[in-house]
Amino acid sequence: MRWANLLVLCPVASYQLAAFPFAALFHHLSASGRLSPTARYISLLAGGCLLAGQAMGSYATLLLIPVASSVLVLLSASPAHVHTWAFSLQMSWQTLCHLGLRSQELDPQDIRSAVILSAVMLLTQKVTSLALDVHEGTVTLQPSQGLLQRALPLCSYLLFFPALLGGPLCSFRRFRAQIEFPGTSHRPLGAAGRRCLCALALQVLRTQLEGQLATMQGCAGLSCVHSMWTQALLFKLAYYSHWMLDEALLEAAGFGPEAGQGDLSGSDLWVLETTNRVAVFARTWNKSTSRWLRRLIFQRCPAQPLLATFAFSAWWHGLQPGQVFGFLCWAIMVEADYRIHPFLRSRAASRGAKLLYHGATWLCTQLIVSYILVAIESESFSELHLLWTSSNSILPLSYSLALLLLLLTKKLKQN
Q1: Phi, psi dihedral angles at 29 (to 5 degrees)
Q2: Which of these three, 127, 159, 180, is where a domain ends?
Q3: Is the entire prediction scored with pTM above 0.70?
Q4: End-to-end distance of the chain based on CA atoms, in angstroms?
């Protein structure tokens, strides 16, 4: 085992770990009343600026520009139009960042480009979520106050260091409530420590499995399926450990998510690995982002909301070929899942048939999710073509064909 790799949970893990003592110190000083609300806002903002400078270097400018623009929009636009302006400006900037950094020949060892893209994507979540709150009237920015008094909480929220490089989406209302009334009874270090241990355990497991990954080139039949499943499992373990570490940092700073509102818990991990429904996996995977997408796109789209949600997710992730193919495939698989399961359940009458139904659909869900994850993580057309032309495509194609047949059957019955 390569023990040096155990701390390499993600490109930003070292910065997250370095921020832990400062997060714990901030929570202690806030809970003990030694920092006023204004000092808390300033501390979080200063910590975010320092962390951005250390983790991103000169690329930090790509984060500070949209932060300033978003604050100006939030303070100047009317509630009726603030969401449209904020969404348009932030997604335009994020797309330019993706295209601009992708067009450059960067050093593969330089993680700053990956860090800045991740931070800008998280900023988009916070900006659009806050703009929707203002648009819907659930958040007011107190126009009676001075400009600096109104801008400071916004800047602090968009750049506060525990959630700058990762973590589930923290709403502005919860952020402001935690600043104004920091909890004194909550003990965040215990919860943060448990999450860190879980992240470490997941990374140990990932390191153990890494040596078993077979290359997809030259595989045939079941060996291709095993290779794809192992590769997807490594991706999942990396995401799981990443989310655990993100939530641990938020816990240490006193901004831990409410019950059921984080990205990953023990029950979520169980659901992700045992569910026999692709749709359930999609809702449970990265839950805060799923809820954000549902609110931002699914509930506001008048036609084909499922397809629109996954298409926007591909745009938000960067529109690389693997992402476009993977997320559109995911949308088709979820739609097929909604129709195939009622059809199969109605025919599984006996106990043996029900066990067969659950076992077979669990296996299909695992393989389909693995296919989607490997597609999304493909970094080139050649990798995507290799996946598409392998035997792994048989099951997604079968689901697509089953969806088509069920839709045609429904249409014939209606006619």
Answers
A1: -70, -35
A2: 180
A3: yes
A4: 62
